Amino acid sequence: MGWIKKGAIDAYDKFHSLLGVEPTEEVWFYWESLQSGTLGLAQMRTMTTDPVYRCRLTIDVNQTLNEDPTKSITAHELFHCFQYHVPLRDWNGAEQKWLREATAT
Length: 105
What we know:
- The chain is 41% helix and 23% strand.
- The protein is an alpha+beta fold and 105 residues long.
- The chain has a single domain (2-104), classed as Zincin-like (2-Layer Sandwich).
- It has a three-stranded mixed sheet with strand order 1-3-2.
- Helix 1 runs parallel beside helix 2 and helix 2 (67-83) packs across helix 3 (97-104).
- The protein is globular, with a radius of gyration of 13 Å.
């Protein structure tokens, strides 16, 4: 979890400065298993235990065995949280997936 925290702290101000926006609610981080081939996941959603519509990041515990990849995955997924607040197009739409992923790399 320390690597996830460091990756988020290192990236947050850079993304805010670059895009001029930031998430309107706290970003919540989860560390758990994801389907094979998925390193991380960022979603805007609510949960039954937390009804606030916020960006939730999940980092795969099986893929984060080293510091640099963990920080990189965290930064990539955190960038998606910032993208969701850019008044562009439908970031969740299939036609924009390539743009969403390319700009978060």
